[in-house]
Amino acid sequence: MTDAGRPRGWQPAVLDLLRSAAFARAFSLTAIGAAFAGFAIERLSSHVTYVTIIAGLCLAAVAMLVARRRELSVLRLAPTSLLIFLAWALVSVFWTRDQPKTLIGWIGTAAFALLAVAVAHVRDTLQTARTLGDVMRWLLSISLGLEILSGILWDTPLPLLGVQGAIADLGPVQGIFGTRNALGFVAVIALVTFLVEWRTTSVRPGLSVFSVVLAGVLAVLSDSPTVLVIGVVVAVAASALTLVRRAEPAGRAVLQWTLGAALLLALAVLYVSRGAVIAFLGAGSDFSSRATLWSTILDYVRAYPVQGWGWYGPWATTEFPFLGIDVALRQDHASALNAYFDVLLQLGWLGLLLFVFLCGFALVRSWLDASERRAVVYTWTPLVLITLLVDSMFESFTLHSFGWFMLVLCATRAGLSRSWRERVYERGPVVPELPASGVQGGPGSAG
Question: Nearest CA to 82 among 26, 25, 31, 120?
């Protein structure tokens, strides 16, 4: 029998599957869905079940990246700032008070980073936004359905999922995300994604309208005080980005610097008038409790100002210093309610500097990329990053689960578009991008 007539065997078939566009789409949908539905999965099954799902997805991600190794470059696999941050978090195992829990926390952080890097390499920007949009439509629709079922049809809470059933009173609602702040944060990310879908006409107009209304309604019903702040900042950023994109290339640099100066001035004004802003938002008591928490955290930071207490991710409330903070405040906290304070507590000033570099480089790269490219889809990355960074001032979602996943995903996408490593990357393919500003297609056209 000739070579042509011999059966191929299972190995080539598996490799073909791992390299296929269908597998990449299925993996991306599953990874994003698992990241955002983590709270519901753990409540409906167990933490062990969720860990098993994430571990299985990580194995699939490694297998897929290995199968596509000829399309990839190790040098451009992940942003350098991300790798340095993860390395510093891992090194903290040597001075932490509980090495096993620190190592477990780091593994969880690295696992979500791996999933995000894999999605960023097998999906281009439009496909990534479309995949996220498909997942968000399902999760937000399920959230609204459960709230209607609990608050109107049954008129009883669903404690298993943390649904209080307050939709008849116009909120606050939590959906399947556990808290109103988490739902509001997810709704804003979804709203940005749906608007980009609308502008790129990558889904049917009717579906776009439904998606935008769905995200907007849940954002309002969440009654989260952070939603209004994030929404205003993202709207201003979108307007500024539109202004830059429409400017002549010769005057774009001057406009960028002008907007940067205006941003610094606005931040200074907000800081000076922070009392009036907090009163306007009706978040005085909430901010007061957060300020007390942050002040207590700073007291513990002074013990280990450079290296921090060790990386845990979400707080291990039975361990020090988290236990000491909760006892001092007579409250139970799962985080610092601020990603920057959380990093400062766990990884010290050096860790905070590395985290700011990671976020800053990603934002600058994605902003410049969106400023220079005509396709509207490239605005998705900087706007989502701005959403993440603003929310990090009020919550620590950006450091774990879906928030950390989105941060790494956007940072990797930004690094693939603009990176100093392109200067030394002389050979090899570049992740393809769609040149047009709009692509026609139905709800399943992201593949």
Answer: 120
Find out whether 320 and 97 touch, Cβ atoms under 8 Å: yes
Place of tokens 């700073």: 298
Is pLDDT at 435 greater than 50 in this prediction? Answer: no
pTM, two decimals, is: 0.86
Is 176 within a domain?
Answer: yes
145 vs 140, 211, 248, 334, CA distance in Å?
A: 8, 14, 47, 28
Which residues touch 88 (CB under 8 Å, ≥6 apart)? 347, 350, 351, 354
CA-wise closest residue to 288 among 221, 347, 337, 252: 337
The whole-number pLDDT of residue 372 equals 82
**Lowest mean pLDDT segment, chosen from 206-215, 330-339, 345-354:** 330-339
In a domain, 206, yes or no: yes
- The confidence score (pLDDT) of residue 430 equals 46
Q: Per-residue pLDDT averaged across 228-253, rounded?
A: 81
**Rounded Cα distance, 416 and 124, in Å:** 10
Domain assignment present for 98: no
Given a cut of 70, is residue 240 above it in pLDDT? yes
Cα–Cα distance between 113 and 118 in angstroms, integer?
9
Task: State the DSSP string of 131-151.
Answer: HHHHHHHHHHHHHHHHHHIII
Phi, psi of 260 (to 5 degrees): -65, -40
Q: How confident is the model at residue 420 (pLDDT cuts 50, 70, 90)?
A: very low
For the chain, helix (H) and strand (E) counts, in that order, are: 17, 0
329 assigned to some structural domain:
no
Packing angle, helices 401-417 and 339-372, rounded to 10: 30
Number of domains in the chain: 1
Q: Which of 11, 17, 27 shows the shortest CA–CA distance to 122?
A: 27
Angle of CA points 74, 111, 366, to nearest 5°: 60
Residue 430: closest CA among 440, 439, 419, 438: 419
Name the residue range of residue 176's domain: 125-223
Could you give the CA distance from residue 163 to residue 172 in angstroms, rounded to a whole number?
A: 10
